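Hi, here's the filled form for the chain we discussed.

Project: internal
Contact: R.S.
Residues: 362
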Amino acid sequence: MKTFEVLGKSLRPLPDKWHGVQDTEIKYRQRYLDLIANGDSREIFLKRITIVREIRRFLEDRGFIEVETPMMQTIAGGAAAEPFKTHHNALGMDLFLRIAPELYLKRLLVGGFPKLFELNRNFRNEGISRRHNPEFTMLEAYWAYADFEKMADLVEEMVCHLAESVCGGLKIEHRDAGGNVTKTIDLARPWRRARYADLIEGVMPGWYQLTSEDRRAKCAEIHLDVSQCVADFEVTQHVFEKLVEEKTMDPLYVTHCPKELVPLAKQNAEDPSVVDVYELVINGQEISPGYSELNDPIVQRQRLEEQSGGETQKIDHDFIEALEYGMPPAGGIGIGIDRLVMMLTGAESIRDVLFFPHMKPR
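And the returned structure, exactly as it came back:
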């Protein structure tokens, strides 16, 4: 005699396993159906899980320790972004979901942890797009007595390790819905490095000899809408994003960026108008910034005051005080895990690499 026992009720029919879930709304809103029916989606998420695990192993094998820092902060620091705000009833104070863990990780450098990292969730109350989600995963790592070039070497080695161990090689193919190859990203080392100003001159010859008005006129010629109230360095950054960043597929380290763009990085010894940083661009978007970290508390205070527009309540004075006790020179990196996974798996939207992306209510 054979018997069966009902372990769970299935009241709705599953999607057609042959065609899978085709409706992107269903894919993102009901990810469980997407995972049941679409093998390609399931494969992307299994790769993401493996990538995060390999990042931890890679860093730990090189002496880095994993730490945790607050996700609710009294001052949203470490980046220029709009934070989410909440209120703590018992303490009677407003708090912010962090936009970056940087300032707390640097406190740990002061405290004597020379090689540390955090895989963290950040929150930014800004737009949603193919490359942006209000909640995202970030790796930040700091290495005492290293600099931005040493950190660039570390990231290059790590990403190539991930590509070979998880994706099977250094050539990453991106395909359309029909399976046709649309582009191939070549991660073969060494990766190209170029100065920010040289890249701007390459796409806009004579740019740095132009007046402010002429630069805006040039932007109009390439259909780049730039507000009259933005600073000159921001105009240049818009040109960089449109003509350099968006068109760069293979890895490119953009070095020596204007100091106004990166207030937490160390000024270059030979050219004080730039800072010792890199921005790693792959697949038409920034994947990772890296700095020689600014550890002078006097200069850091001046930079943060300039960034805040004189609103001292926006400055993390406790962080400045920590620097006054002495932070060793250090290199630091950030890597957007979601964008990294997009690049390594061929996903064209950040929603394809998040189990549950944020969406408007139905």
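Let me know if anything looks off before we file it.
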